[in-house]
């Protein structure tokens, strides 16, 4: 059961990342539970599909947001219907070939299965700056560049 759940949760996460990479605000917002929470890189806290959608639309319309490069680090199943996924993420700015370490992040997703469908209850994108530990920034960037 855990292997199947892990795959389902990883697929949920990947659909969220794919929607970001396609600049698809509706696709992102639709993956959240009705009162799901998104905490952005800048600390913005959005609650519910409508608020998430209204926040993402102008970002995608008005800003050249680079796509994510991600690596799932682990998935923990908590009971029969809840899971936590942790991933690392980086971005390659337009016209560049290397990940910009200044926007590396830890991503945490809490998923709950309701009515036979996995939904996002929490997605948090936290800067991975490792203040005073530049070797950790280099290590994370190198790990992500292996995917590119």
UniProtKB/TrEMBL annotation:
Coiled-coil positions: none
Annotated source species: Oceanobacillus kimchii
Domain DUF4440: 9-120
Protein name: DUF4440 domain-containing protein
